[in-house]
Amino acid sequence: MINVAVSGFAGRMGSAVVDAVTAADDMQVTCGIDPHGSSKVFAVYETVEQAVHAGGFDVLVDFTQPSVVEGNLRVALAAGIDCVVGTTGLANDKLEELAALAPEGTCLFYAPNFTTGAVLMMQFAKSAAPFFPEAEVLEFHHCNKKDAPSGTAVRTAQIISEARDGRQSVAPGKETEIAGCEGARGALVEGVPVHSVRSMGYVASQEVVFGSMGQTLTIRHDSWDRTSYMPGVLLGIRSVGDRQGLIVGLENFME
Ligand code: NAD
């Protein structure tokens, strides 16, 4: 049985993690950490320091806020607790610095996107890119999303650019935009146009459209609700016990 602490357990993602861990046969929630949470089922702490002091868990899952995640991880990693992190806002050099605080055998796992389908979409895009001269990314999110384009769209564009090996698109670009309609060809991310749609009705969707002579290939992924992240979170929780150091990206466990 894997004992799990959920940091940010009263939030949208944290509460979905509590439900998913509770429903799994091989793990249980032993405590939750959140200044705004309460529970009749497991112990609740306001800070990770208090939870680590009380002990009783092997893995800390963190879905909190960019402003607090670093402090949470500093405490947990120094105590040798494996961490599964979905909270955004930690740059790679910061993740490396945090992982270095942990004793040998401890794992810091960060996934910018926990949906298995989005990871596969990026892998399929990497395979397709060398065979299609044109590629554009269209991403669709709910209107509360603060950033555009999404991190997944940016990463997909980078992957396509790397797989193109220096080859350039021949499709008309931003220079053909009509005055007053700038942005019609999207944002250019490493030479790949990226278009961001924000609307009620979406959670998170993305299409990658490839074009070649006489053919197009469309790869599409849709997240319809937050449960779509949970298979990836559970995979992370099950995997960190056998790994150590910093691991970034769910694809590392999808083999
Ligand atoms: P939310 O605002 O609903 O929940 C955050 C929770 O953290 C709140 O309940 C808050 O009280 C709690 N919190 C604040 N300070 C805390 C602290 N010091 N210790 C413990 N808990 C604390 O946010 P959300 O929608 O659940 O998203 C959480 C994070 O996860 C965001 O950074 C979001 O971008 C990210 N996210 C990542 C993925 C992914 O696949 N990697 C997917 C969705 C969301």
From TrEMBL:
In which broad location class does this protein mainly occur, judging by the first location in its UniProt entry?
cytoplasm
Q: In which pathway does it act?
A: Amino-acid biosynthesis; L-lysine biosynthesis via DAP pathway; (S)-tetrahydrodipicolinate from L-aspartate: step 4/4
Q: Which GO terms describe its molecular function?
A: 4-hydroxy-tetrahydrodipicolinate reductase; NAD binding; NADP binding; oxidoreductase activity, acting on CH or CH2 groups, NAD or NADP as acceptor
A GO CC annotation recorded here is: cytosol
> What is this enzyme's EC?
1.17.1.8
Occurrences of domain Dihydrodipicolinate reductase C-terminal (ranges): 117-253
Family annotation (InterPro entries):
DapB_C, DapB_N, DapB_N_CS, DHDPR_bac, NAD(P)-bd_dom_sf
Q: Which domain of life is it from?
A: Bacteria
- Where would I find the Dihydrodipicolinate reductase N-terminal domain in this sequence? 2-114
The record's section on Gene3D superfamilies has: Dihydrodipicolinate Reductase, domain 2, NAD(P)-binding Rossmann-like Domain
Q: Which GO terms describe its biological process?
A: diaminopimelate biosynthetic process; lysine biosynthetic process via diaminopimelate
Tell me the residue numbers annotated for binding NAD(+): 8-13, 34, 86-88, 111-114
Subcellular location as annotated: Cytoplasm
Q: Which reaction does it catalyse?
A: (S)-2,3,4,5-tetrahydrodipicolinate + NADP(+) + H2O = (2S,4S)-4-hydroxy-2,3,4,5-tetrahydrodipicolinate + NADPH + H(+); (S)-2,3,4,5-tetrahydrodipicolinate + NAD(+) + H2O = (2S,4S)-4-hydroxy-2,3,4,5-tetrahydrodipicolinate + NADH + H(+)
**Does the record bear NAD in its keywords?**
yes
Q: What keyword terms does UniProt attach to this protein?
A: Amino-acid biosynthesis, Cytoplasm, Diaminopimelate biosynthesis, Lysine biosynthesis, NAD, NADP, Oxidoreductase
Q: Which positions does UniProt annotate for (S)-2,3,4,5-tetrahydrodipicolinate binding? A: 142, 151-152
Catalytic machinery residues: 141, 145
User: How is the subunit organization of this protein annotated in UniProt?
Assistant: Homotetramer.
Similarity annotation: Belongs to the DapB family.
Could you tell me what this protein does? Answer: Catalyzes the conversion of 4-hydroxy-tetrahydrodipicolinate (HTPA) to tetrahydrodipicolinate.
Report the HAMAP family cross-referenced here. DapB
In Swiss-Prot or TrEMBL terms, this protein is called: 4-hydroxy-tetrahydrodipicolinate reductase
| Taxonomic source organism | Senegalimassilia anaerobia
For this protein's source organism, the top of the classification is: Bacteria, Bacillati, Actinomycetota, Coriobacteriia, Coriobacteriales
